[in-house]
Amino acid sequence: MRSFWGIIPRYIIKNKKRIVFMGIGIVLSVALIVSLSIIQESVSKTSYERMVDDAGGIYDISFFTRDYGKFEELKTDSAVEKMSIAANLGEYRIPNSKVNIDIKAYDENITEFLNFNLIEGRYPQKGNEIALEQWVLDAFPQKYEIGDTMKFPHTVEYRTLEGERLQEEMESNFVLVGTFKYTNNQFPNKNTAKGYITKEFLKDNLKNQNLEYEGYIFINPTSSVTDTAMQLAATNNYSKIFFNENYVKTSTMQYGKVFELIFKVLFIIIGAVASIIIFNVFNISITERIKEFGMLRAIGASPLRIKGIVLGEGITLGMIFIPIGIFLGSLAVRTVMMLSSATGNLNGLFHIPMAGITPALVVGFLSIIIGVYFPAVKASRISPMEAISSNNNLNLKGRKIKSSLEGNGTLRKRFKFPANMAYMNINRNKKKFITTVVSLSITIIMLSCVNYLIGSADPIANFRKNFPSDFVLLSSGTSKDYGLTEKDISKLSEIKGVEKISTERRISSPVYVPTESVTSKGLKFQEANSNRNPYLKELFNKKQYFFETRTLGYSSEELEKLKSGLIEGNIDVNEMKEKKLAIVAQDLNYRDYTNIKVGDRIKISYPIYDEKGNPVRDSKEVFEVGAVVKEEMLASVDASTSIMFIVSEDAMKNYLNIDNYQQANIILNKDANYEQAEKEIRDTMKLSRDLTIKSFKEELKATKESNVKLSMTLYSLVFIVAIVSVINLINIMYMNVMIRNKEIGMMRALGFGSDEVKAMIKHEGMFYGVAASIVGITLGMLSTYVIYIKGRGVIKADMAWSFPTLEIAVVFVITTFITVIAAILPSRKLFTSSVVDSIRGIE
Question: Which InterPro entries match (predicted)?
Answer without folding.
Answer: ABC3_permease_C, Macrolide_Exporter_MacB
